[in-house]
From TrEMBL:
<feature type="compositionally biased region" description="Low complexity">
    <location>
        <begin position="12"/>
        <end position="48"/>
    </location>
</feature>
<dbReference type="GO" id="GO:0005829">
    <property type="term" value="C:cytosol"/>
</dbReference>
<dbReference type="GO" id="GO:0008270">
    <property type="term" value="F:zinc ion binding"/>
</dbReference>
<feature type="compositionally biased region" description="Low complexity">
    <location>
        <begin position="111"/>
        <end position="126"/>
    </location>
</feature>
<feature type="domain" description="Gelsolin-like">
    <location>
        <begin position="933"/>
        <end position="1005"/>
    </location>
</feature>
<feature type="compositionally biased region" description="Low complexity">
    <location>
        <begin position="265"/>
        <end position="281"/>
    </location>
</feature>
<dbReference type="InterPro" id="IPR041742">
    <property type="entry name" value="Sec24-like_trunk_dom"/>
</dbReference>
<dbReference type="Pfam" id="PF04815">
    <property type="entry name" value="Sec23_helical"/>
</dbReference>
<dbReference type="InterPro" id="IPR006896">
    <property type="entry name" value="Sec23/24_trunk_dom"/>
</dbReference>
<dbReference type="InterPro" id="IPR050550">
    <property type="entry name" value="SEC23_SEC24_subfamily"/>
</dbReference>
<feature type="compositionally biased region" description="Pro residues">
    <location>
        <begin position="49"/>
        <end position="59"/>
    </location>
</feature>
<dbReference type="Pfam" id="PF00626">
    <property type="entry name" value="Gelsolin"/>
</dbReference>
<feature type="domain" description="Sec23/Sec24 beta-sandwich">
    <location>
        <begin position="719"/>
        <end position="802"/>
    </location>
</feature>
<dbReference type="InterPro" id="IPR006900">
    <property type="entry name" value="Sec23/24_helical_dom"/>
</dbReference>
<keyword id="KW-0653">Protein transport</keyword>
<dbReference type="Pfam" id="PF04811">
    <property type="entry name" value="Sec23_trunk"/>
</dbReference>
<dbReference type="Pfam" id="PF04810">
    <property type="entry name" value="zf-Sec23_Sec24"/>
</dbReference>
Amino acid sequence: MNVNQHTPMASPYGQPQPGYGQPGYAPLDGGYPAPYAPYNGPTSAYQPGAPPQAPPNSSQPPVSTAYTAAPPTSYAQGPPPASSAPTQPPPPSGPAAPQQYYGGPSPPSQQPFNSSLPPTSQQQFTPAPPPSQQTFPPSSYSGPMPPASQAPAPPVSQPQQSFPPPAQPTFSAPPASQPPAFAPGPPLQNQGSFPPRGPPPSSQPGSFPPPGPPPTSLSSGPYPGQMPPQQHPPPSQPSPYHSGPPPPALFLFCSGAFGQVRGPQPGYAGPYPGQPNYGAPAPAPAPAAPAQKRLDPDAIPSPIQVIEDDRAKSTEPFTTGVRGQAPPLVTTNFQVKDQGNASPRFIRCTAYNIPCTADMAKQSQVPLAAVIKPLATLPPDEIPPYLVDHGESGPIRCNRCKAYMCPYMQFIEGGRRFQCGFCSCVTEVPPHYFQHLDHTGKRMDCYDRPELSLGSYEFWRLSTTNNKLPQPPAFIFLIDVSYNAVKSGMVNIVCEELKTLLDYLPRENPEMDSVVRVGFVTYNKVMHFYNVKSSLAQPQMLVVSDVSDMFVPLLDGFLVNVNESRQVIESLLDQIPEMFADTRETETVFGPVIQAGLEALKAADCAGKLFVFHTSLPIAEAPGKLKNREDKKLIGTDKEKSLFQPQVGFYNTLAKECVAQGCCVDLFLFPNGYVDVATLGVVPVSTGGSVYKYTYFQAQSDRERFLNDLRRDVQKLVGFDAVMRVRTSTGVRATDFFGSFFMSNTTDVELAGLDCDKAITVELKHDDKLSEETGALMQCAVLYTSCSGQRRLRVHNMAVNCCSQLADLYRNCETDTIINFFSKYAFRGILNSPTKAVRDTLINQCAQILACYRKNCASPSSAGQLILPECMKLLPVYLNCVLKGDVLLPGADVSLDDRAYLRQLISCMDVSESHVFFYPRLLPLTKLESDSLPVAVRDSEERLSKGGVYLLETGLHLFLWVGASVQQELLLNIFGTPSFSQIDPSMTSLPVLDNPFSQRLREIIDSFRAERSRYMKLMVVKQEDKTELIFRHFLVEDKSASGGASYVDFLCHMHKEIRQLLS
């Protein structure tokens, strides 16, 4: 979803977009874009105020009852019950009355807890017969409307999330004589055959099948291209979703981990006469309608609840001394104390208790991986890694496996030798490093030496080949001066900003000047180099018009020290916009631009970074010339994968040369059309660089975002010419790597540049058995040149436990890291496989993980229950967010460039960034405390209240959603205007108002931006405005316009997949 684009939106709000359920409408299209069982949307799309709280008796364990249509259901803590008929309605008393519902076991509160099993979260479902009779055809189009010039894409271009219809059990309606079930929210009028939402599956027994004629079924062949023209079934026609006999009911039993279960709204009738009404006023009569049942969203695992629970329990600093201890979640603020393992800010693992054998790992299907961010920035209250000097001979290492000295080395023979923790080889201790051992076998100086007591540290004064210190790095700015670049204002903004930005080049010591040298090039179809030698009065321009054989026309005066040449540089930056103000040249080159920077670094014999500011597809005659290959017809076909692969091999070869020289490339793109990010991004991605993209760049509204990105990119600490190697103890090895880097062999990750934002993900596989006593060790070592020209070696160590019981594995996983790994794995997979195959692989692996847990770790229980491990209960909701994202399931308005850009961006994200990207943070802003943030709400339209204002953060964008009936006082506090209609939706920053609310809101926005590596532009979204479609795209628990399932539907689908695997 392109947020820069001022998307020509759909027709007025009254006609709903396909794919968005709206109050007061019959079902759209008579079917659903994806063949999911129906989700009828929230009762009313915007619910006034907060969701109703549970009734006073909600402390009682929720009870599920059985029906004739369903097999007996049971609790997970005991064997299936003998009888399946409810003996009596639950008494309205509190938890004191122990109730026996079946002839079987009592509710779980009385069951002994099996302490050897990890905690589980249970969803109790009952199976529906597989709906073989119906297939729901996809809608022919479900994105925002394209511009008039652009016809809607043909149906094949809309890849559907095509699962078989899940066993989403539908609750049938009560007989017409009865009052209907509770609906959370006001009763719906004018619904036609759109059934209102049934009761939440809490402690109320459900309803019986309706009398009357069987409903007609949709008899359409699988996936017809177009829908029938009639969009809304007339009110007389029965709902098209009930085909055949009514399916059995769905039960939900939840172990209390997900917050309160919604209770009945006061003023609505109970599910059947005689059912206690728990303190509600007399039931109001309401028209009988067929009630369609769906899972209550409040009764399924809530990401917000899990995040809040983790925050509540993480009050102490996290000490890393205990092996195999999972850290707090990335969403929790915590302090780390390094006591021998690397901080989770440097390394996060998918599991902290890994299986002892390859068979066990294969059985569980839990990926074993680590996300490593070697140069991560630490918060001010944590100590950066200490510098260690081992003298002229360099760091002490194991003779055999070359692991560096670390806390896992065991000193023996009075301290004269040490045994390696990785390969068990014994190595002599050099005389200068000798130290006596104490009575426990530890060295006397253990706590004085970082490498013997800490998880992360850095060696310096490393000997280099032929003892020649590397040259300090250089930054070269290469600016596109073609017609588009000048017209958009980009050239002007860059030149103006560089005058001040050059004072902030990276340096290790803030007191000293930076030693980084700078050079300048402009280009369109030809290259212009500038001599800015300090002895010149005016800069000199040298033009290279033969771009097919690139060379640098000057050596002396191209790369200069900023302070020495300041006046010449400023004069040049003033002249560039004037020189090209009237240019008519629209064509650009790109390959020769990178070649020019590379040749300049080679000539100066140094590493460095190229900052390329580029606008259009390079179609001018030159090496690396590209053609426009964007073809919407290929989306969703087997040929789609070719669109993510580079068009020509030229850039792969060029990337290899750049890495060899330590030349890192950062690319700033300002496209107004297709520029083939998949190809242009090859060099930045292979050299450890970054791609920034500002589609339809407008100086006025995008200037702030671009300049903040540029400032951070120039100033952040970066290492050059880096090599990373991951060593592991016997039994496991690193087999696969994901991120922005280049590999010429199977072990060394080569990075021309490595900055504080880049993460590298490493997959580990077994090559032998592991033992529970010793655990598994990992050491990540990164050799790099610092921005002051020193060779450094940063070392991070990690020890995890090993287990022979699957239950221990499932007790110590980290879902956020697993999702980070899965997304990178999938995004690389689309280079070689159709996106549908990649999505199916992910769903299958996730189902296998959960089925293995169910089969081997959970107490025996009825097949109707969905049982999830406590630390993985959010796996389905997060996985669904990956599956329905723009990369794997694009809407019609998502360009190929956007998808290629996101694919590259996510490949080097750390866990905290991928978390907020896939499950955005949504904060209600009615009350703001000065010291804490409001508790977030779930990413669903039903959580939005018409009278509220919400801030949504995705890590790349910020949205401020304003409800249509917000109080005047709140509008005055935020916008300085009392009326909703006067709010300007085009504003990108909030007015600075003199009131505590405005001040605190701006502080929150600033703090969110400071946490992220990219500047998030603010977009104000008014309820029912056209921009709301973009905002809704990020409400990831709802159905998506591109056919992605809602969380509820996906959970039902996962349950069905798990049951198929188990049967």
